[in-house]
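Following up on my earlier message about nickel (II) ion. Here are the inputs again, as you asked, copied directly from the submission form:
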Amino acid sequence: MTVKTTKAIRLDLQTWTEVEEYLKHCKGIILPLGSTEQHGPTGAIGTDALTAEAVALEVGCRTGVLVAPTQAFGMAEHHLAFPGTMSLQPATLLALLHDLVLSLAGHGFEKIFVVNGHGGNIATAKAAFMQAYSTAETRKLPIASRFQCKIANWFMASEVFSFARELYGDREGQHATPSEIALTLHLEPILRTKQRPLPEAAPVGPIHGPHDFRSRYADGRMGSDPFLAQSEHGELLLEKAVFALSKDLTNFLQQS
Ligand code: NI
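Thanks, got it. Here's what our run produced:
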């Protein structure tokens, strides 16, 4: 499966009059959320943004729901000891998501479906939604009573999770996982040259500060073996993620 992007579902390619027209028949929108952070010795810095965007665009194509531009920066403080990582502090990400979802709510978007590619964003995104609900009421937005945001983590969808276990077993790990790397290999053929022979398993443990992280996880992997990643796996994982999240989104749009 290749990701088809059509003008019809990309917010950045619409005119404001087209958005106004869209809102007459659909109140939902997808916001892809990633991170720009180290992904182990073979993974691209943009892994979480590339994967979230690909899943979001394909879910948009299948459901006809608009897709906002990707928010490529997330909460990656613990990866800052690795070159190339660009992080938003939790308070910054909270404020950013709060402002973005309220911008949309102000136009009449009632259901914001955030397709997320990074575990480190989850707590902050949920906090931002709570804050946004309060602000919507304080501002007396016409849709305040119907305003709902949902975070959908493609890598945690049960179909994806169980398939990743089937492919990689315990070597799926927690960070720089073969499943997310496989998806980037499918999306960006230029990355396929970076694969190397199988190393020993990466360590597992807690997450604290950036330098503590680097001293525990020297090459950036957590419990994972991204060397197992293959682009063919990525194609299948993308299909499973899109299937699961399209179903989630449809249910979300229908729920009161
Ligand atoms: Ni990741």
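One observation from looking it over: Residues 39, 47-48, 118, 180 surround nickel (II) ion (CB under 6 Å). Hope that helps, and feel free to reply on this thread.
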